[in-house]
Amino acid sequence: MTPTQRVPIELPNAKPLSAADPDSLFAMAAGSVSRACEVVGAPEYVRAILSQPKNELIVHFPVRRDDGSYEIFKGYRIQHNNALGPYKGGIRYHPEVSLDDVKALALWMTMKCALMRLPFGGAKGGVKVNPRDLSSNELMRLTRRFTSALGNHIGPDHDIPAPDVGTNAQIMDWMMDTYINTHTDGAHQGMVHVVTGKSVGCGGSEGREKATGQGICYVLSELLPELNLRMEKLRFSLLGFGNVGAFAAQALNAAGGKMVAVMDHVAALRNPDGLPTADLYQHVVKIGSIAGFKSAGTRAVSPEEFYRTPTDVFIPAALERMIDQQKASWLDCKVLAEGGNGPTTPAGAEILRQRGIAVLPAILCNAGGVTVSYLEWVQNKTGVHWDLQRVDSELQRTIVLTARRVRLAAHQHDTDLSTAAFGAALDHIADSYLRRGIFP
Ligand code: NAD
After folding, report:
1. 16-58, pLDDT tens digit by residue?
2. Do 52-188 and 211-360 share a fold?
3. What is the DSSP string of 333-362?
4. How many alpha carbons lie under 13 Å from residue 322 in its C-beta half-sphere?
5. How confident is the model at residue 6 (pLDDT cuts 50, 70, 90)?
6. Would you kindly state where each structural domain of the chain is located, as residue ranges?
7. What fold, for 211-360?
8. Distance from the CA of 98 to the center of ligand 1, in angstroms?
């Protein structure tokens, strides 16, 4: 048999498991995969394999608070699939982190890396904590203790964490340092690529911080003309002005777009002539929220007014499940570009479908972050440091090629862009399973 010949695999007893709670984020994520499997005709065993994560790790660990007391924290690491390469995915610090959510986020990472043709599988992790309640020293102790609890379950060629909601380059620097100092044999000493999204001083890549927001801009530039929208005149609104939202706003602004409304966890602002995105970012860096920002023509509005603001593109870049049935019916936009993961509830998604609002899926829109994480990993492994121009052009090339792949899949299967994106990811995973087989 030649190495390129495919061996069909039959697993007659492989029944996909379904999550019990139909409202669970994981059930929602698995549902998207199931629908895409049907549309692209992916083998049943692929759906079965992807219907649960490969490994689920839950840890409990104590952290000393500044007042000398101890508190126990709960952490997760879900390794969903590694058919295409080492597990890859962010670490979230948030009080509402749950097993179900982390499983969903890990599954989306599998699909995202496959869609982008990156040599990674999917993972996600988190700690149930509000990082705003901890001092910097407490945050460092929590991060180091969590990393040591993960032990050998992470590693530069095994499972590679990155930042997500509530974590940043500083947290990644502490994770990397802890990993290296708890793996003291010589073989591990240079392994800064155990995490990505580090600060540039610790081996991070140029352009990583803005990559996810920048990626949204590249996706829109490629796909909007087909939806009869132009970047130069684009009016957009943003839910969430954190890492993803703030950099997406600035990139879209630089490309000629106007941000006419924005909302975060504290306030909502509107300006029909466009908010100054760079000034707003500086305000958020200082204050921690968009609340209290002043500029000509900007006024504070209610959440309902925010959602009802007429725009071309609405970009949710906050937390999951924020666009429910009611908010989906308030939206006055032509396109919803998913900056954050799983921003709509299933009922919200159905309203968007009925109202003819095109949805650009998160596994494409927010893939800029993991793409530059991959570039960081490659630079670390090969001992080089690329300039921003090289990183940006690699990012743009990868995103534009992938956006075209999604558009082609949508035409081929006569389906929407979301299903097409999942389908294009599944094709790649299924192909790998067909070629390598299933052990033993
Ligand atoms: P972040 O913590 O930097 O920002 C989150 C934003 O959401 C903040 O502006 C916050 O005020 C806002 N927010 C939180 N709760 C809110 C509420 N109830 N109402 C309105 N706004 C609220 O997080 P981030 O890194 O920008 O991530 C946002 C989303 O993008 C998440 O779904 C994350 O998984 C996803 N994502 C992030 C990256 C990345 O590189 N950071 C990459 C891919 C996907």
Report:
1. 545 456 568 999 999 999 999 999 999 999 999 999 999 999 9
2. yes
3. -SEEE--SSS-B-HHHHHHHHHTT-EEE-H
4. 23
5. low
6. 52-188, 211-360
7. Rossmann fold (3.40.50)
8. 16
- For 36, the 3-state DSSP assignment is helix
Total number of residues shown for the chain: 440
Query: Could you please report the per-residue DSSP string of 397-421?
Result: HHHHHHHHHHHHHHHHHT--HHHHH
Residue 143 has pLDDT above 60, yes or no: yes
Spatial distance between the Cα atoms of 27 and 30, rounded to a whole number of angstroms: 5
* pTM, two decimal places: 0.94
Atom of ligand 1 nearest to the CA of 166: 2
Closest Cα to atom 41 of ligand 1: 164
318 lines ligand 1 (CB under 6 A): yes
Q: Is the CB of 243 under 6 A from ligand 1?
A: yes
Is the C-beta atom of 371 inside 6 A of ligand 1? no
Among 259, 264, 305, 314, residue to substitute to test ligand 1 (most atoms within 8 Å of Cβ): 264
Q: Which atom of ligand 1 is nearest to the CA of 245?
A: 26
Q: Is the dihedral of CA 133, 138, 143, 148 positive or negative?
A: negative
pLDDT, position 39: 93
Q: How far apart are CA 122 and CA 49, in angstroms?
A: 13
Give 59 Cα–ligand 1 centroid separation in angstroms: 24
259 lines ligand 1 (CB under 6 A): no
The alpha carbon of 10 is separated from its chain's Cα centroid by a whole number of angstroms, namely 33
Give the list of residues 6+ apart from residue 266 with CB closer than 8 angstroms, or none.
289, 290, 291
CA 165 to centroid of ligand 1, rounded, Å: 5
Q: How far is the CA of 239 from the centre of ligand 1 (A)?
A: 9
Range 52-188 classified under CATH 3.40.190.10:
no
Mutate to test the pocket of ligand 1, among 103, 107, 132, 165 (most ligand atoms within 8 A of CB): 165
